[in-house]
Design a protein that fits this description.
- The complex is a heterotetramer, with 2 copies of chain A and 2 copies of chain B.
- Chain A folds into 2 domains: 161 residues, Glutaconate Coenzyme A-transferase; 36 residues, no CATH class.
- In chain A, helix 2 runs parallel beside helix 3, helix 3 packs across helix 4 and helix 5 packs across helix 7.
- By secondary structure, chain A is an alpha/beta fold.
- In chain A, the strands form 2 sheets. In chain A, strands 1, 2, 3, 4, 8, 9, 10, 11 and 12 form a 9-stranded mixed β-sheet that branches. A 3-stranded antiparallel β-sheet of chain A has the order 5-7-6, covered by helices on one side.
- Chain B has one domain: Glutaconate Coenzyme A-transferase.
- Helix content of chain B is 29%, strand content 19%.
- Chain B is built from 7 helices and 12 strands.
- In chain B, the strands form 4 sheets. Chain B has a 5-stranded mixed β-sheet.
- In chain B, helix 1 crosses helix 2 and helix 2 packs across helix 6.
- The longest helix of chain B is centred in the last third of the chain and has 15 residues.
- Classes of the chains: A alpha/beta, B alpha/beta.
- Chains A, C: InterPro entries: CoA_trans_fam_I, NagB/RpiA_transferase-like.
- Chains A, C: It holds the Pfam family CoA_trans.
- Chains A, C: This is CoA synthetase.
Chain lengths: 274, 253, 274, 253
């Protein structure tokens, strides 16, 4: 598997795709999201696994998004996600609320190839009241009535994330962020940006194999140096809190958001300069 | 020893709730994102010498899990997390939490970030300490617009626990699950039963209560030294604001 | 957490415990099984995850075992497990047959804290016909009848395995054998032998964390050098096929098995000499 | 080129079944424990230049999975494994497999190792090639004593596929799922329709069949060179027996 250019990787995402994204503390593919804005993708149905941050807010602001299924959209210390809030107020995106472990569970069901999986809790939450696709039934193993939530399997069309490195076999190294493996296993197509390509086979190295996702699951890879920025990447580089604060400030208005896009996303070599 | 910072008082109040001998044991506490005051309370308990395991989910380095938040939720599902902290954009008198928004679904008047894991964690841990610094009729409402997570559940619904207490910037409320009501437990210095009453949108038991105790001198010394040291990497802004500490210079201590 | 002596670790296993063991290709705690034989534990209910090998056959032969729940008991290239076969023929142990992914699924349900989990397949197998604790129901998410197997959560009393190393926090390194994490998560108590103790904190090392099981799940650790032998351990040492063949040969008869125990298990410093 | 070894013939027959253009595509094949002949057939297909992914579960090093066999079964559950190999202590005319034992449950007459993952994998892959070298009335029975995994399932039971064929030391049977019957597809050199008939305990279609083709010279060269090189670490005894190769000396090739 030869790595693609970043924009070529973004071109593999069709309009309308159900795309899973990790949150801002776990290998978020920020450069890839900026490439999707440049490509002008439309109608994305985003899935936050289990919550959403910068990349989701950016794609919403750029008009790329039809719906967001998530357990929360937040910029963390920088506060509310401004373009998400504006879109909810304007009614321009559909919000499908979930709760964190329910999203993990729906993906685990897809990973396992079963049509549903149970989860405790949630009963009595209005999240459940607004999920006609979720069901409550009595636990068939209980002697007396024991209502339990059943969640349907959810297989994203695409999962995208930013990993540390990849090899020619398509294996990608995510380190301790093993929850990305579940996302990759559950998704029909997996697109990955990485800091760098490495020689050899990550899975044949006993020290690297435990943090490696098998290339079986990976369709394509692109090199994007500092591709998580302004999000951090394991011990490679830290979260850029000042930039996220600047984003939160600029994106408070539509005009400010346009200025952000011009400066950081659509400017020539914006990502290369990052 | 300088004056007690109001946030130190909240930290101390939460630490005492953690150590409440009447509550189920807190051997393993998890602390979620952007929670400097609960995190500091947990560190204080630990630095006081209590054998508690802390899983701090948002340390930039050394995250305790290798399967992300899924591992946290699995642990909670197994019953291996004894105590968690939750808040809410709205909290009502039955301890229902609203992290989703106000007005029509899904928060058309004002959207909050979302439910996070509240609809699960609130059921799975033997106890939850609710913390919301803003104490106003805007936050503490008669009935939440949207229930992210219910305070109590009907008989037959699997649930290990609910709110132990609600700590605000004005007072501490204890929660009684059987009656599904809060009662005033202590009032922070500078507040009165009346200022609490006026700022609270829901009905609660107890017209008066003792003053919330300040942290002891020993506790303050721990907060300003070793607890701050532990917090500095994750919450630099909080440490600067409360303890006037910047950078990692003092961390070697 | 200070490491125990091997025999002290074995003393933590009560008679009658439901004990999960990994198979012969995945961190089998062979030295620990020999210590259990020396301790004279009785009435163990073994769970093979998902199949069983040398350790299980040894414990059966030594009279430590009341029942075996497993998907297969085999010595691999060395053929049938002789003491298991003899015990089945004599009717001295209960055999609870399962099928590999069902065992994984029952443990995953326990890991997740849910009372059951579904699994495809298995319907029409006599394994199912002999599992009154397994249920078939119609998939509630299907439009038409769609029978699917539901498996109850299974939380072993004890899980035991042999890992590469441990630190003072009880974190243990299992490398690419991450399936051990599921066993550890699902079990009430986890006892681990390791090749060696290491300084520092495995989970704070970004390179080692992905192959580390959090000490949250680990009750006690003992150092047992070459503690998987005659089974192999990742890239540390290879499977000793000649010894397994010798075991298979000796264990074909009760007398031969007694001779094996005398030579390799109960002899003074048998494990130290291994 | 020396004479064809009987096991090379079995390898060649299985390779041709893998490549059968009438069968669903085999992009990803998994091979379980102690299966040198199916493994060699897969390597032959790969060395012939076909773009197939092999997941060999029992390589001492470089195991393809990081979650053990659970990852294999999850992959199969998802439909990401196209072909698997199964055998059985008993196999009957409906392609039912018995890996558990003979006589009363759970194999009181003769216990086999156990079902392994057969009760799942047989349903989950679009096709399964059955392989059992011993061709006798002891193995190929009218009706298995215990069904580890059924050959066919009633309508409505989720199932992606079943047996494509059964390869034995005497012949190749094709399996038709609709009629749930085997039919004779080819007979290995040295055997006849009669010797097959006499050794088979179940009824099947086809009284005669062509001779099983030997591997081509090119295939034999691949088997004895690069395929053996790949097999040597996992199956040294098999390589010694069939190809008279010992040690890893030739492996640099």
């Amino acid at each position: 598997m030869n790595p693609l250019e970043l924009d070529a990787l973004a071109a593999l995402v069709p309009d309308g795709a159900l795309m899973a994204l990790p949150p801002d503390n776990s290998l978020s593919p920020a450069a890839f999201a900026r490439a999707l804005v440049r490509r002008g993708v439309r109608g994305l149905r985003l899935l936050g696994v289990p919550v959403s941050g910068y990349a989701t807010d950016l794609l919403i602001g750029a008009g790329c998004v039809a719906s967001v299924q998530t357990s929360a959209v937040t910029l963390g210390e920088a506060g509310m996600a401004p373009r998400f809030s504006a879109a909810v107020a304007a009614g321009t995106i559909e919000v499908i609320d979930a709760t964190c472990p329910a999203i993990h569970t729906m993906l685990q069901a897809a990973e396992k190839g079963v049509p549903f999986m149970p989860l405790r809790g949630v009963i009595g939450s209005d999240v459940l009241a607004h999920r006609p696709d979720w069901k409550v039934m009595d636990n068939p193993f209980a002697e007396t009535g024991d209502p339990i939530l059943l969640l349907p399997a959810l297989a994203p069309d695409i999962a995208a994330f930013h990993a540390v490195c990849a090899d020619a076999h398509g294996n990608v190294y995510v380190g301790r962020r093993r929850e990305l493996a579940t996302i990759a296993h559950a998704s029909r197509r997996v697109l990955v940006t990485v800091e760098r390509m490495v020689d050899g086979n990550l899975l044949e190295d006993e020290r690297l194999a435990p943090g490696t996702i098998n290339g079986i699951y990976v369709e394509a890879v692109a090199v994007a140096e500092r591709g998580a920025w302004p999000i951090g990447l394991l011990d490679e580089y830290r979260f850029d809190a000042a930039h996220i604060a600047e984003y939160a400030r600029m994106a408070r208005t539509e005009d400010g958001f346009r200025a952000y896009l011009a400066q950081y996303v659509t400017a020539p070599r914006a990502d290369a300069a990052a | 020893m300088s004056d007690v910072h109001p946030q130190e008082r909240l930290i101390g109040a939460i630490a005492r709730l953690i150590l409440d001998p009447a509550a189920p044991p807190a051997r393993h506490i998890a602390v979620g994102a952007a929670s400097p005051i609960p995190a500091a309370a947990c560190w204080l308990v630990k630095k006081l010498g209590h054998p508690v395991r802390l899983s701090l989910l948002h340390r930039p380095t050394g995250n305790p899990f290798t399967e992300g938040t899924r591992e946290l939720f699995d642990l909670a599902g197994q019953g291996r997390i004894d105590l968690f902290f939750l808040g809410g954009g709205q909290i009502d008198g039955q301890a229902n939490l609203n992290l989703i928004g106000t007005g029509d679904w899904p928060g058309r008047a004002a959207r909050f970030p979302g439910s996070f894991g509240s609809a699960f964690m609130y059921f799975m841990t033997p106890r939850t300490i609710l913390f919301r610094e803003e104490h106003s009729q805007r936050v503490l409402v008669p009935r939440v617009d949207i229930v992210s997570a219910p305070g109590v559940s009907p008989p037959g619904v699997f649930r290990r626990g609910t709110a132990q207490a609600l700590v605000t910037g004005k007072c501490v409320f204890a929660f009684d699950a059987a009656s599904a009501r809060f009662s005033l437990a202590s009032i922070h210095p500078g507040e009165t039963a009346e200022t609490v009453r006026d700022a609270t949108g829901f009905a609660y038991d107890g017209a008066s209560a003792p003053v919330t105790a300040d942290p002891s001198a020993a506790e303050l010394a721990l907060l300003r030294g070793p607890v701050c040291d532990e917090m500095l990497e994750t919450y630099p802004e909080f440490c600067r604001r409360v303890w006037n500490r910047t950078g990692l210079a003092g961390r070697a201590a």
